[in-house]
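Objective 1b of the project was to move from sequence-level analysis to a structural picture of ligand recognition. The entry below was assembled by the postdoctoral researcher (A.K.) and checked by the PI before modelling. It contains the amino acid sequence of the target and the SMILES of the bound compound, flavin-adenine dinucleotide.
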Amino acid sequence: MINGVDAAALTAVLDGRWAHIRQTVRDELGAEFVTVPGESGADARERVTRLIRELPTDVGVASAFPVAYGGSADPGGSTVAAEMLGQVDLSLMVKAGVQWGLFGGAVVALGTKHHHDRYLRDIISADLMGCFAMTETGHGSDVQQLRTTCTYDPSSGNFVLHTPHEAARKDYIGNAAKDGRMAVVFAQLITGGERYGVHAWMVPIRDEDGNPMPGITIGDDGPKAGLLGVDNGRLSFDHVTVPRDMLLDRYGQVAADGTYTSGIANDTRRFFTMLGTLVRGRVTVGAAASAATRNALTIAVRYGDARRQFTRPGDDREVVLNDYLAHQRKLLPALARTYAYVFAQEELAVTMGEVQTSTGPVDEHRQRELESRAAGLKAVQTWHATSTIQMCRQACGGAGYLAENRLPGLKADTDVFTTFEGDNTVLLQLVAKGLLTGYRDAFGSLDGWGRATFVAEQVREMVLERTAARSLIQRLVSAVPGRDEEVAVTDRGWHLSVFEDREKHLLESVIRRLRKGAATKKDRPFDIFNDVQDHVLSTATAHIDRITLEAFVAGIDRTTDPAARALLAKLCDLYALTTIEKDKAWFLEHGRLTPARSKAITAVVNDLLRELRPHMRTLVDAFAIPDEWLNAAILREEPARQDTMAKEDDAIRQS
Ligand SMILES: Cc1cc2nc3c(=O)[nH]c(=O)nc-3n(C[C@H](O)[C@H](O)[C@H](O)COP(=O)(O)OP(=O)(O)OC[C@H]3O[C@@H](n4cnc5c(N)ncnc54)[C@H](O)[C@@H]3O)c2cc1C
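Corresponding predicted holo structure:
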């Protein structure tokens, strides 16, 4: 039995390294910044455009910019600030993400000093609103195949930007429909009759009066499922003149005579290096999805503590929803996973900060590991948001369906998080490719799956790449005694070794299948990979589950308050065991669990739910979301309603 857990002690652990930013956002963003349920699209756009300029600078959303231009060069902190904004209003968070993360981030990462000098201050102040125009109607996931062209003409010294057909128009672009005056436009660079792959240009799209610039057609994507405050639109270019110095030329330069130069000779490698520098958007989207999940869970848990249905025989009062095992089964495993992601996300933000502020030579291994984790954690956190917010909606019954109770809005706004900043399925393939290639060398090239000559030991090495708490984890794993049946199902070392073993086994068997495919389909690398795609996705998920568990274990290790530590340990048990339970079929099929042990896990999960029941409220209070941000009518009204009914029942009984 765990007693005396102080929510504030948990908050301190959850807030982590950037506690000061989280607290500043809580202190400074009041009700005027919070989502207005049920507002019209036009009102939402007007409100969000106004608020983006009123955001206090010290809340840190734009803090990733270089110090010389008024930023604080804190990439990790800026993702945390954006995550916090996601708890206030998701449209505001996405609009900020487009302006400072995508548009501003691209200028910083892909541009050079003269672009920075000319534009960064106005971007930070939001005097210059801009777009990140990469996606086209015809190409979203496979952006290397973009069809927009930007062709250099040495006689004029300008580029000519052109949309060759409708499938090449830029689509879904944030800030395009109403506010953007400039766009970072991605297109195929052509000079001297040669193509050099996708590059980016700064392109003015509206004049001072808000009218489209000559040759540019701007459209509105129209009503969307959610994110009503964001003006997503379309851009087409009809032979638009773009001065040579508007090419964001950090990775590829075009001289006045049209000569192309780049420090990275291979077009594909150059493009993926450019994309790699833009990883912050993905890190932010995963974080904001989890922030919205925490809002939904807080609403559902608090409602479940107040709402009563059905009486126990012999009792006068009805039972609160959270006392039902079925309700605990809905809420507590989701809560445990949400906690796990807080720790994994913090590790990711720390790594990103270190990689992006490092002044030494580029550490390619760390950069790839960062991209892989960002992709994987974005995918699992956004899927978790979609399923958990829907579950919370149902856990609040009919009340969960009313806009005034916020859950429909959270659901609609986070839905697209599974798609933008990289479709989740495509992202998980990226994670698996990172694991499989063992950094490419073993395979020859990313496309050359058929030529795989893999040595089994490499798998182990890759599975065990560094994490924050590697030595602690190794110690726990090596302390697991003998046969599984002799180890308690709550043994942390056992959890860690089971997660690690599943990942390793999946990876080895994918490799075996790839090699088998290579033997029969020698010249069809696409088919070789496509035939194991399901297996590849399971491997990526197992990898992310494992690093998430390890981050949770490291988080507990950092917790000094004994009661908070004990509660987190129980929650971590629940995360580990419900993850195993969800994939029971795999563990049983592969002889990793006996039927008896599998049943024992279900029984222990139910025991854990009972143990954690008294702490549900503390666990959500620890998220420290101000009531005015939650802004859910049921949280104000339901406790009062229950009081009234209880008094009425008492009066009837006494009369
Ligand atoms: C609200 C909103 C805002 C956006 N904002 C911007 C913005 O500001 N700037 C910008 O440039 N873009 C933006 N986008 C675009 C977004 O990034 C793309 O929608 C996204 O990358 C997916 O591309 P797509 O829509 O073409 O889907 P597709 O790539 O066509 O995917 C459709 C389906 O096919 C599946 N699929 C695709 N490839 C594979 C594969 N190899 N294997 C298996 N399955 C596959 C996917 O999993 C998905 O289920 C925005 C989109 C939306 C909806």
